[in-house]
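User: Here's a structure from my thesis project, written as structure tokens. My advisor, Dr. K., wants to see whether a designed sequence matches the one we expressed. Can you design one independently, without my sequence as a hint?
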């Protein structure tokens, strides 16, 4: 678990005795504590300091504890919020759980109970972070979902990624949400000059603007209230690895200026620092917006746009590479079946038609979620239409699309049958795994030209 000295806690209570007692006790336990007497003041502090946890009284003058809870979590969604409640307001505390509160404390407050609850939440946080790190490292050893397929559009992505990977050039990945921009960025990093280096990703839209600069560039001790020691940002932590900036269009102007300096001069200026710090990290960026239009509207710096757009990779949406869907389905099904311990060998002809015809507005991410659901709910060796999400919207009334589907399904069936034949000890077992009769299997082998 992270040391207490690394943990910042906000204590909000309008009663000085309770506020001061909690602050003194937690400070003695090694936490960095910021006391506050009102919700309004607490919001100001939360915009200045990335608190790990907050203890908030429900009964506050002005902004009450429940409203404060909502607004604190909007500022920092990773903050743990514990509500302090008197006996008569337990119902309010229970209701607060539905709004994102993590725990509550009953008055009169028992200091050891406070410490126990905080430590439990921090242990959960550290376990979660470790789990996320292990998941990321595990995924790095497997094929990337976004790179599965043989379409010409995807091959173009692979080709550019392969050429730019062993350079230090900045790369701008452009594509709709869910197309796998981070996965392509990760692939570029792994094929780059320093694959052993760290790959650090940050979503510029998910972090409050006031905290994003600190997250990226770090700060110096005393830079703001609660900054009791130096903190290195992601550019320093990445070393000679890669910093991936997703949704770059959402970066505020002040941070854009600092990023431009990092690219041009290979140095950053931490918050509160007088001297710049040299950095080596490679920068990859991604957006689902038209950055040239963002420049025209004045929301994005033109000079930064040209610096990021040295090499641009356009990642096609899934609907523009439908020929990759069968291979993606095969790959994703095998992964989910292994993870969930289910014996799923493929999808039925009808289910594949639906998957091939869907608009997939959420792209590979939406397909992945649909197949995970199908594996969880499915009971047979094949995914059936009933196992798929009911809100999928196929367009099977389009004659041109149906013709495309027929060829795509034919290619999928051939690939799927050949894979099962290699795995099964004989054709009888292969037919059983695919939910076919033996005569039906022989007929499909002849129709597809598969040598038996």
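Assistant: Designed independently from the structure alone:
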């Amino acid at each position: 678990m992270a040391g207490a000295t690394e943990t910042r806690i906000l204590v909000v209570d309008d009663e000085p005795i309770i506020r001061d007692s909690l602050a003194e006790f937690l400070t003695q336990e090694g936490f960095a504590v910021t006391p506050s007497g009102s919700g309004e003041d607490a919001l100001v502090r939360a915009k200045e300091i990335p608190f790990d946890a907050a203890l908030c009284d429900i009964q506050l003058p002005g902004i009450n504890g429940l409203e404060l809870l909502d607004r604190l979590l909007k500022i920092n969604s990773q903050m743990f919020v514990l509500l302090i409640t008197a006996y008569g307001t337990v119902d309010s505390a229970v209701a607060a759980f539905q709004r994102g509160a993590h725990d509550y404390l009953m008055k009169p407050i028992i200091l050891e109970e406070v410490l126990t609850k905080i430590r439990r939440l921090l242990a959960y946080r550290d376990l979660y972070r470790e789990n996320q790190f292990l998941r990321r490292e595990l995924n790095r050893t497997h094929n990337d979902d976004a790179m599965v397929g043989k379409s010409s559009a995807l091959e173009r992505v692979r080709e550019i990624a392969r050429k730019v990977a062993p350079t230090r050039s900045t790369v701008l990945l452009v594509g709709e949400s869910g197309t796998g921009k981070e996965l392509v960025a990760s692939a570029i990093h792994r094929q780059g000059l320093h694959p052993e280096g760290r790959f650090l990703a940050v979503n510029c839209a998910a972090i409050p603007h006031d905290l994003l600069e600190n997250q990226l560039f770090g700060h110096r001790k005393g830079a703001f209230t609660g900054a009791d020691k130096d903190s290195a940002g992601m550019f320093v932590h990445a070393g000679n690895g890669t910093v991936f900036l997703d949704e770059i269009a959402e970066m505020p102007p002040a941070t854009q200026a600092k990023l431009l300096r990092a690219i041009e001069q290979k140095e950053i200026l931490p918050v509160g620092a007088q001297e710049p710090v040299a950095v080596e990290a490679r920068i990859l960026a991604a957006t689902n917006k038209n950055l040239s239009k963002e420049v025209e509207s004045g929301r994005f710096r033109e000079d930064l746009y040209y610096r990021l757009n040295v090499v641009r990779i356009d990642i096609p949406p899934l609907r523009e590479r439908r020929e990759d869907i069968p291979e993606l389905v095969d790959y994703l099904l095998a992964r989910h079946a292994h993870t969930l311990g289910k014996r799923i060998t493929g999808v039925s002809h009808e289910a594949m038609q639906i998957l091939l015809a869907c608009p997939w507005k959420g792209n590979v991410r939406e397909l992945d979620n649909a197949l995970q659901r199908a594996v969880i709910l499915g009971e047979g060796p094949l995914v059936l239409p009933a196992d798929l999400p009911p809100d999928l919207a196929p367009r099977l009334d389009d004659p041109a699309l149906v013709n495309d589907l027929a060829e795509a399904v034919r290619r999928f069936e051939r690939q799927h049958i050949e894979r099962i034949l290699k795995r099964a000890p004989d054709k009888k077992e292969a037919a059983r795994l695919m939910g076919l009769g033996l005569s039906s299997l022989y007929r499909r082998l002849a129709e597809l030209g598969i040598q038996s």
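When you compare it with your expressed construct, this may help: The first strand starts at residue 8 and ends at 12.
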